[in-house]
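Q: What residues go here?
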């Protein structure tokens, strides 16, 4: 039942995008099965995957498709950079975002993390920004990143894309 709904969503929402990255419905189903294996083994009821197209892009990246990586960078880099700007000085934020991207690629290609953990439950851009901010805070707590002067006394809000367009 889960497989059938996933394939229906895949062909409805992601087939054109998946064809671009040479990702089949079977590849996405296999990726989802690997991600949800613990819940499946317990017999838990699985919710439908909300962002099947994003899961197809992540599957393309996991499979090593260069055009999937490139398109994801073009799509996610502005949001990631804005998130880093909210926590770091501008010069450091740009280099840190690119360094984080390379770390994400290495983890994904090694199969130890990165996009291998993306499950399609929320949009990939939001997931990547959350992961970036989590990694940034870990670096800050370890003392390897400076605080922005503006952060002392009040937090700097993260501006969202929709707020800028309104």
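A:
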């Amino acid at each position: 039942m889960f497989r059938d709904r996933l394939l229906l969503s895949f062909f409805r929402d992601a087939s054109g995008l998946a064809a671009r990255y040479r990702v089949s419905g079977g590849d996405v189903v296999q990726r989802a099965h690997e991600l949800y294996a613990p819940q499946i083994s317990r017999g838990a009821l699985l919710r439908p995957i909300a962002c099947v197209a994003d899961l197809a892009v992540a599957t393309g990246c996991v499979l090593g498709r260069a055009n999937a990586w490139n398109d994801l960078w073009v799509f996610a880099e502005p949001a990631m950079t804005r998130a880093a700007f909210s926590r770091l000085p501008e010069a450091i934020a740009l280099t840190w975002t690119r360094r984080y991207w390379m770390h994400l690629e290495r983890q994904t290609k090694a199969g130890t993390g990165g996009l291998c953990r993306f499950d399609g439950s929320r949009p990939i851009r939001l997931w990547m920004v959350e992961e970036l901010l989590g990694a940034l805070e870990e670096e800050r707590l370890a003392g390897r990143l400076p605080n922005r002067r503006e952060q002392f006394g009040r937090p700097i809000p993260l501006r969202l894309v929709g707020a800028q367009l309104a």
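A: Context that may help when evaluating the design: The helical segments are 2-20, 25-35, 37-42, 52-62, 66-85, 90-110, 124-141, 161-165. The chain has eight helices and no strands.
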